[in-house]
From TrEMBL, chains A, B:
InterPro entries from the UniProt entry: DNA-bd_HTH_TetR-type_CS, Homeodomain-like_sf, HTH-type_TetR-like_transc_reg, HTH_TetR, KstR2_TetR_C, Tet_transcr_reg_TetR-rel_C_sf
Organism field: Chromobacterium aquaticum
Cross-referenced PROSITE patterns: HTH_TETR_1, HTH_TETR_2
Name of the molecule in the record: TetR/AcrR family transcriptional regulator
UniProt keyword annotations, A-Z: Coiled coil, DNA-binding, Repressor, Transcription, Transcription regulation
Domain HTH tetR-type: 1-57
DNA-binding region: 20-39
A Pfam family per the record: TetR_C_24
DNA sequence: GTCTATAGGTAGATAGAC
DNA sequence: GTCTATCTACCTATAGAC
């Protein structure tokens, strides 16, 4: 578990391919050979990182949606949870999930796709409710994809030293998509 | 030039690190050693791919903006050119630009950043005009970042075999951001 | 400008001791 | 479970012939 967290940060910062099993061992204070007692291959570590990133974000989102009451509050939760997971203190894992797909073997992909689809289904459901309430435009399938793209991209430019907190950024991004209320 | 195009596709499909100089040689029918007559390092090839991706897109965008007359038409051009460059027949290069930053050495980054900033400045200018004309919301700096994120992400899910052409997709994405006209 | 051949380095993974 | 030691393979880049 400590290894998975450390691996997430290394994979995010250097990329999966550039990170060696020796780097991974160093990060947790063991020799590279010892890793292979816990994992059969380096790729297994990558898959574990990705699975952690998406499942923990999904669980947080589920909880936030259940606690929110109005469609508007649920909609806000999408942005808030996703950005906090992506930009927050301890979540390099989700970023690895987004940027290291090409290094996942065909055999391991289906399992991760199931996890991703589960997460996106939550989004779809909340967006549909919001559209029904007249909060956002009606093309929710395309909206889901564009919004997730917008949020994912934030890792490329958001800096925590800047003027905006993550929660504030979530609010601003929400504003961009809300329809003017009549 | 033929090499740069071939390299773009290989880097996009397999990633830069997983693509060997032997792969690159194979793709253009020469031995791997011969590559180093044209480029000093493998990284130089990566930088050339990225530079091609962003500069050719910038030029296309410049032309499209000049030909467009209304703010609305210029705005549409942003979406159309970007998506065609990203999803079109021969433009793996731009995708490499987006996904292989980590493999670019610190020495080579500044040059690419200049090219990227030039492209984004075009965007900013068109968005500002559109906001002044009341077409889109006023927070154009954030809008630029979210829109570019949305467009970039399309490579992850857009399939040309699907129902939507690239130009149609551009139209739909434009619709999502346009304000209802009073 | 492309070839063959290879230097020099490092990668992921394994074996057996403790 | 972790160590040391090492295997095998492959990588980027170079050298010199043509």
């Amino acid at each position: 578990m400590e290894l998975i967290r450390a691996a997430a940060m290394l994979f995010r910062d250097q990329g999966y391919e550039r990170t060696t099993v020796r780097d991974l061992g160093n990060a947790v204070g063991i020799q590279s050979g010892s890793l292979f007692y816990h994992f059969r291959t380096k790729e297994e570590i990558l898959v574990a990182v990705m699975a952690l990133g998406i499942t923990s974000t999904t669980e947080q989102l589920k909880r936030a949606i259940d606690e929110a009451i109005t469609p508007r509050a649920k909609l806000a939760a999408l942005f808030r949870v996703h950005l906090n997971s992506l930009l927050g203190d301890n979540q390099a894992a989700l970023e690895v999930m987004l940027y290291e797909w090409r290094s996942v073997s065909a055999a391991a992909r289906p399992g991760l796709i199931v996890l991703r689809d589960r997460y996106e289904a939550l989004w779809q459901q909340v967006l549909d409710e919001a559209a029904a309430a007249g909060l956002i435009k009606r093309d929710t399938a395309l909206l889901r994809r564009t919004l997730l793209g917008s949020l994912h991209w934030s890792v490329q430019w958001y800096r925590s030293e800047g003027a905006l907190s993550v929660d504030q950024l979530a609010e601003h991004m929400l504003d961009l998509v809300l329809l003017p209320q009549t």
